[in-house]
Specification:
two-stranded antiparallel sheet, binds heme C, mainly alpha, 4 strands, 161 residues, Cytochrome c domain-containing protein, two-stranded antiparallel ribbon
Length: 161
């Protein structure tokens, strides 16, 4: 093999490595990014969820089950500003920032507690919070898959489930 050929072979090998690396990198990042988009759609109700008021046999109309109706349009970082101006004791649905969910906070008279992805999903399904306090009935109970729970969690907290 002539030296020139060897150089171009090495070049091709390097290029292949770069492409493989880029594919690997984008593949790794596509997961959470896609889940975040799905979470945003679930949050806004563009993707519908099935929910009930505790004790009711009939499912709520999907429009009434949208998180955004009660918790507000913003989420994540953009919500922090409006959360700051809201009275946490007024009984309304809280603005769900990453901080509100992740930091130890006394909720509904219980001891300080924080959410992780599993506790978040339990709350959505059963209405029981991380301190084992039952939420009032005006927060609906959701028939939600693990994947949809995780997508909402990623959308709200920016953290992997
Ligand atoms: C019909 C109104 C309504 C809808 C729709 C609704 N929520 Fe709520 N949610 C509430 C209320 C009210 C509370 C607060 C109850 C309390 O603390 O007294 C609450 C509480 C919560 C909490 C607990 C926060 C904490 O600090 O413990 C989480 C998490 C939550 N909601 C997530 C969601 C998600 C995710 C959706 C959509 C899948 C949703 N909610 C839809 C009314 C609603």
């Amino acid at each position: 093999m002539r030296p020139r050929q060897r150089v171009s072979l090495a070049g091709a090998g390097l290029a292949a490595l770069v492409v493989a690396g880029a594919l690997f990198w984008s593949g790794e990042r596509a997961g959470p990014a896609q889940a975040g988009l799905q979470g945003a759609a679930l949050w806004r109700g563009t993707l519908p969820l099935t929910a009930r008021i505790a004790g009711h046999a009939h499912a709520l109309p999907p429009v009434a089950a949208r998180c955004i109706n009660c918790h507000g349009g913003e989420s994540g970082a953009s919500a922090s500003a409006s959360a700051a101006g809201r009275d946490p004791l007024d009984g309304a649905a809280p603005v769900l920032t990453a901080r509100h969910l992740r930091e130890p906070t006394a909720r509904r008279g219980g001891p300080p507690s924080r959410y992780d992805a599993a506790a978040f999903c339990t709350l959505l399904r059963t209405g029981v919070d991380p301190a084992s306090v039952l939420l009032p009935r005006h927060m609906p109970r959701y028939e939600i898959t693990a994947a949809d729970c995780d997508a909402l969690w990623i959308h709200l907290t920016g953290m992997p489930a």
